[in-house]
Every structure is written in C-alpha cells, then in structure tokens.
Design a protein that fits this description.
CATH superfamily of one domain: NADP-dependent oxidoreductase domain
Structural class: alpha/beta
CATH architecture of one domain: Alpha-Beta Barrel
Shape: globular
Mean pLDDT: 93
CATH topology of one domain: TIM Barrel
Helix content: 25-40%
Length: 329
Amino acid sequence: MSMQLTRLGRTGLKVSRICLGTMTFGIQVDETQSRAILDHAADSGVSFIDTADGYPLFGNAQTVGMTEEILGRWLAGKRQNFIVATKCFATMGPNPWDRGTSRRHILDAVDNSLRRLQTDWIDLYQLHNFDPEVPYAETLEALDSLVRNGKVRYIGCSNWPAFRIARAIGLSEARNWSRFDSVQPRYSLLFRQWERDVLPLCLEEGIGVICFSPLAGGLLTGKYDQARRPDPETRFGRHDFSSEMYWHADEFDSVSQLKDIADELELTLPTLAIAWTLHQPAITAPIIGASKPEQLDALLAAADVKLSQEVLARMDGITRRHRLGDAPR
C-alpha cells in the first residue's frame, strides 16, 4: 500500500494522508511496543507523526515529556524522513510560568521539546489549548520568532473555537507574523459540531485540519455494548469524560446503523469511519492511534477506500444529528 500525500493547508508542506498519534506512548503503551507501532506505521507509508510535550495523556508530573523522549530515540538517524508535530500548553513544572502560552513558557517549552525529540527543528508547532490569561499578540509574536529563527517551520493550534482562530489569523496578517497553518479539533462521525464554523473557516483561509479522535474514543470500533460496563483497561473504563461524551443510546444507535453499512461494503467499522473523515473536504489527515501494531491495519486501509456519494449521504443522514445541539440527550 502506498500512502497518498497531501498539502498541509495552503502551505507547500506535503504530509501523509494519515497521521500517527502518540498520546499513549509511555504509560498505556511501553517503549518497546511504541517503537513497534512507529515501525509499522512508517513501513506503511505514514510520515506524519503528532505528539505533545504533555504526553502521555493521563500521566502525572513524573511522566510528562516521556512520549517525546520515546519518539526522539526512535527518530535517531531518520529524522529527515518524517514530519513531526508537537504542542505546548501543558503544565511542565512547579512554577506558575511552566504552563500556558506566555512568551516565557513557549520559548522554554520549544527548547525542551527539541531536546527530548533530539532534533534541531519542529515541523509543526501547535498551541494545545487557548490561554485566556495571555494576550494574543504575546503568544503569536513568540511563535513568529520561532519560525524566523528556524526552530519551528509551521505553526498551528488545537482545541480553539472558530472566533479565536479568526482573530489570531487577522492579527498575524496585520503584523506580518507567521500565521496558523493548521488546526487540530476533535472530529468524527459522532462529534461533528465543528462543521458549523471551524471547518468552513479552515476551507476559506487555507488552514489544514488534523482531526483527533476520529473513532470517537473507540466507540466507532463497534466493540462496545451499552448494556455492559466497559473493560477498566479501555478508555471508556478509565476516563469519565469519554463516557460523558459518547456513552449514550443515540451514539450506540448510530454505531449500529453504520456497522450495517460497513458490512454491506465488506469493510470493518473502523475502516469505514476513517474513510469518511478522509472524504470530508476540510480534512488534511485524521490522527490515528493504536496499542498494538496490527491495530493500525484497518485504519490505514481507509486511505484506499472510495465511498460513493450515495454511501456518504446515508452516513450523513445517520450522523447529522451529532452536530452540536442536534443530538437528543
């Protein structure tokens, strides 16, 4: 299987159509298994890897940065072959300035990420969240300085609403600063609220979209039964926020109907779900993850799936209600 490449938004940067996420590397997935997953993804043509300084997710003060360190060791000797995206915002130390998007923290955070990743540059540097305590200009000027001095090639944000993205773009253009070339939102068949504003904004402004949780926390694997308590080792068993977001009768009804379509097409449900994201015009690359190398196969297969307009319309009819405010609770 040869992996298709695509441009990141309006830029000239080519990235693989599927991005590998690493947020579990270091706790749920040990380093040996993490390396095996990275090897399998790379062998399958994935050249775009996303991480964050605060990973592994759901870690603690002792584990922050561990994921970047694992990735840095794996990249040794082959850095030129990959597009590496990381993020800053998380609490990285005991001081009040060891988090957020102040100039002080951004400049400290990027140097520490470069050290952990064992690289001289970061291809895509993203703000993991919005920091209401810091002026836009302070944050954006700091990011621009990183691009100008070569530590960072492109910048983006994650978990920002449309009005904040638009304001940041306007300020960057007015000041002739580097502007956001990517956005990383939660997006899947069961979470479509960003179709109302973020995705149209990105299409209008030429911003790449790297969506996370395209399997809705795992619900779109089809392996869960609402009548049974989830295994404590799964995301739904470990974390209340996943259950609060997805563990509802309406979502399970959608999954059942989507499973019927997958069966008709002789696809797995995860393959169908990832293929759907790849058919959305604003999406540059969905971020996929795994706890075992072989779990990647069904997700990577989505890159070769062509869905007809009839099938896409059926899927839209099933999941349209999962835009914000449309789904009953």
